[in-house]
Amino acid sequence: MNGGRSVELRQLRYFVTVAEELHFGRAAERLHIVQPAVSQQIRRLERSLGVTLFSRTTRSVVLTEAGQRFLPEAREVLAAARRAAESVASLRDVRLLRLGTSEGLGDRLDALLRAFARVSPSTSLELVHAPTLQRLQRVRDGSLDATIVRGPWPSSGLDLTPLWMDEVFVALPASHPLASSSVVSFASLASLPARLSPPSRNQPLYDLVVSCCREAGFEPVLGPDFTTAQDTLGTLGFGRPHWTVFYRAHANLLPVPGVAFRPLKEPTPRMQTYLATPSDRRVTAEVVALIEAARATETG
User: Fold this and answer.
1) Hey, which residues does 61 pair with through a beta bridge?
2) What confidence tens digit (pLDDT) does each residue in 179-195 have?
3) 9-87, which class in CATH?
4) Average pLDDT score over the chain
5) Global pTM exceeds 0.70
6) How many other β-carbons are positioned within 10 Å of the β-carbon of residue 70?
7) CATH 1.10.10.10 boundaries in the chain
8) Which residues in the chain are classed under CATH 3.40.190.290?
9) What region, left, alpha or beta, does residue 100 occupy, with left being phi > 0 and alpha being psi -120 to 50 degrees?
């Protein structure tokens, strides 16, 4: 250590998240905190270690050689801390269910947590946010009991239980003529660039939107990638006219100046949400209760 400073588990968690995303904004979204807090803790960690972990420019964030060496060690420390906590979990009166969550669950997640508290009041939920493929792997290796996923993903070693269907809304500038309609047809979007999450980040949603565009008779004109909700909506409200998509449950929590959310028609896109559980282990009573709670929140 440099200057006798200690390294906090929180700082290691922030570092690993930024290293996986290579973007401070997306890392902050995953951690459910503001971006300046992430940057501050990373700087403190670098001062404690006496090295620079990331090379930052206005366009990119990359790991330095020191960061690359430090990453597997940081992951091992976090895994050891998790194992230590799990070793005494069975001694607690309160049962624990470790649930992976997905971006954009919005008010669906709030409703699920309320319903689960009613169905299984003696169980504590630990919510874990990470990219979908990482969450699925953690269900396979047992470090998560289950995870919520939207759309079809590689499911080897997993059981996928349908929970609910989510409608997909279009987000477009509130000043655009299309925003004056209560429902927007897909064909009317043909001349506007689309800002979508790339297939490498969200293949199911990308495929759904592109297939809807083709069903409406056009190939989407792709603009810059969807990055974070905050950045994308900020650009959408005050930049050149374009459009993107949000799940209705997420849009319900996003009143953003300058942005209008509207249902889509011809076709109306909908995405199936699943609960992924390990296929080689017995489904626990807590997971059964979670499925019951999720289906109780189904509104269509």
Assistant:
1) 56
2) 999 999 999 999 999 99
3) mainly alpha
4) 88
5) no
6) 21
7) 9-87
8) 94-300
9) beta
CA distance 159 to 202: 20
Q: Which helix (H) or strand (E) holds 141?
A: helix 132-141
Q: Cα–Cα distance between 147 and 128 in angstroms, integer? A: 9
Identify the pLDDT of residue 90.
Answer: 60
Q: Is 282 exposed, middle or buried (0-12, 13-18, 19+ CB in 10 A)?
A: exposed
**So what's the pLDDT on residue 155?**
83
173 has a pLDDT exceeding 80: yes
Determine the 3-state secondary structure of 177 from DSSP.
Answer: helix
Q: What is the mean pLDDT of residues 33-46?
A: 90
Please report where in the chains the tokens 């296929």 appear, as a residue.
Answer: 279
pLDDT of residue 3: 46
169, 183 Cβ separation under 8 angstroms: no
Is residue 12 within 8 A of residue 74, CB to CB? The reply is yes
Domain with residues 94-300, CATH architecture = 3-Layer(aba) Sandwich (3.40)
